[in-house]
Design a protein that fits this description.
This protein is mainly α. The protein is built from five helices and no strands.
């Protein structure tokens, strides 16, 4: 389980760096004051025909990023629950401590 956690963490770092690079490479749209209120966001979310390949790759990387973060969070909880100190103590030693 820890190996999978480490592997997914490395993949998350790679996806994050690629996502940052792709966002910085994209040409800004709607730089006027209307963009502040989200006028350009609806066009981007609804899949305007002007979407470039960079935009599509950015959406996919964003989805992969979200999936990896949720998976790592789930694995983190599983690992934390399985590595408790109390579970590692043999049962005989636990009964001696109670006396």
């Amino acid at each position: 389980m820890e190996f999978l956690f480490g592997l997914l963490s490395v993949v998350l770092v790679i996806v994050s760096v690629l996502l940052i690079i792709l966002v910085l490479m994209q040409k800004t749209k709607g730089a006027e004051i209307g963009a502040v209120f989200g006028s350009g966001a609806a066009k981007a979310v609804l899949g305007a025909s002007a979407a470039t390949i960079l935009t599509k790759i950015t959406y996919w990387l964003g989805g992969i990023f979200l999936f990896l973060v949720l998976t790592l969070s789930y694995l983190s909880v599983k690992i934390a629950k399985s590595n408790t100190v109390i579970e590692n103590i043999p049962s005989q030693q636990q009964t001696e401590n109670k006396k």
